[in-house]
Amino acid sequence: MNKKKSIAIASLVLAGILSLSACGSSSSTSTSSGSGSTATSNGTTEIKATNASKSPAAALARKDTLVVGLGDMNGIWSDVFTDSSYDHYADELMFNTLLIATPDGQANGDAADYKVSSDGLTYTFTLKDGVKYWDGKPATASDIEFLCEVMADPNYDGQLDISTADIQGFDAYKNGSATSISGIKVVDDKTIQFTLTTPNASTLWTLGQLPLMEKAYYGADYKKGNVKTVEDKLAQPMGSGQYKFVSYDPATGLKLVANDNYFKGAPKIKNVELSVTAQGQELQRVQAGEVDLEADATCSEDNVASLKKSGFINAYYYPINAFGMVQWNLQDPKYSDVRVRQALAYGLNRAAVVKQVYGQYATVTNVPLPTGSWGYSTDGTTNYTFSIDKAKALLKEAGWAINSSTQKLEKDGKPFVIDFTAKSGNAVTDAMLPVMKEDYAKLGIDVNIESSDFSTMLKGYNNGKLDACFMGQTLTTPDPDTSNLFMTGASQNFYKFSDKDLDALYQQEQRMTDTTKRKAIFAKINKLLNQQLPMMPIYQRNMIVLYNTRVQNVAKMGTFRDPFLDLYQYTLKG
């Protein structure tokens, strides 16, 4: 999906917006799923291979190269500009951020250590020793200041929004009434200090996810108002990360080589290739030996059984920090009445869709927040269990009626028609759309389906132009603040939802630093979003990571820490 904290991904896809990867789960804890499975305390279940000798010859022949399967990338190499979760995974290999999450969601220093003042107004980041870019130049605090100035540029239209961090002087610099951001101070080459106008609970993660981007490289020709000079460098990135960019082909994927000067230690595997995998083919490619690791295969009952039968495949699955949803175009009058949006939720058998695709590895959700998030709650919310009768009653209340001649739902002489844009070959929409057409037909609603490639679909979503579509929304940090999705005028509020009571609640939780108090506010936010339904939640799923037994020293992973972050530690056997 897009990002202050989330990216959208197209299903069997952000809150990257791309194609939603396929897996499912309903809680932050898990249990053993059978022989060879071990549940851990952080909700991650490990499935252990039973017969490494079955590993295909094609995989064993690769001695110094790890092939990772990944969905369609857009080739935008910087989280400051990309809106694709697949690009985000690649960026994790090429760039360091200031902070990184532990598997259980705690903040930990990545490229920097940090301190927060007792009054919550000053954040200090100190770069760690030895952090260098691929060209050998050391990372500096000035690089961080430069990136913040780019993101405060009035022409910056990326989706990593730091305006909500309440940095002193940010708005003044953006509107041109100041020539610098007064709340940002470069203390020395390695230390940068941020001063806020007010305590802000989400600021730590907002700043912590900033990637290191070398000012001398990206800013060589940059002047305020001309962000394009920075964007022009994105296709040939300069990072400090564990792997260095070699080449990219949209049809085949991305090639990387080890950064021998990586400050955490030179990667053990020389070459990494991110190979484009068609949705639904993730497990098959590992079984065939075409790829060594798939980071987001479909976590279904059939796939779990099949990977166990293969014998040579290890796996981890865990609740993903994301949720699947249907987005309606709220600028279309037919969706403007909340009763209509509620009727559409009641009128779709979401449980049947989730069961068909994921079985026990996903659950229907009615709140747009990952179930494993500490901010998740269902207190006072409505469970939109499938009911055609309730849907019909709500549509009638909203002024819609069946035309006796056509048997179609109409209002003011205009029929209710949904034009649904879907990525072809997507497991979720392949299952959902036939159910939607059948269920909504009982309400007198026609559903027209338009197939689209992911890039076109993503562009339409980001422009707020699609009548209806399915997306996965991934939160890129453990913080549950989703104001960038639903607050009036927010960076990722593409369909212009607005509710003054919701805005006030977001402002309240952002000004608190006490987690218990914030959690109480999130309960109210969840209740309001559940009632208003600016989008229709579909499910919470599990993410499953598959890897050949030849891949060893695989680091601990979980809801808040994916396998890409620690790839430099992995080794290959054989």
Structure in words:
- The N terminus is likely disordered.
- By secondary structure, the chain is α+β, with helices and mostly antiparallel strands.
- Strand 12 and strand 13 form a beta hairpin.
- It has 17 helices and 27 strands.
- The chain has a 16-stranded mixed beta sheet that branches. Strands 8-9-11-10 form a four-stranded antiparallel beta sheet, covered by helices on one side.
- It is globular, with a radius of gyration of 23 Å.
Write the layout of secondary structure elements.
Blueprint lengths: L5 E5 L4 E5 L17 E3 L5 E3 L9 H4 L4 E6 L14 H10 L4 E3 L5 E3 L2 E5 L5 E6 L13 H11 L18 H6 L8 E5 L2 E5 L7 H6 L6 H4 L9 H4 L11 E7 L3 E6 L12 E6 L5 H7 L4 E5 L3 H10 L2 E7 L2 E7 L9 H9 L3 H9 L3 E3 L23 H10 L3 E2 L6 E3 L2 E2 L1 E7 L3 H15 L4 E7 L1 H9 L5 E8 L7 H4 L13 H11 L4 H18 L3 E13 L2 E2 L18 E2 L2
Parallel strand pairs: 1-2, 5-14, 5-15, 22-23, 22-24
Antiparallel strand pairs: 1-24, 3-4, 4-16, 6-7, 8-9, 9-11, 10-11, 12-13, 13-14, 15-25, 16-25, 17-24, 17-25, 18-25, 19-20, 20-21, 26-27
Helix pairs in contact: 10-12, 11-13, 16-17
Question: Can you describe this structure in just a few lines?
Answer:
The protein is an alpha+beta fold and 574 residues long.
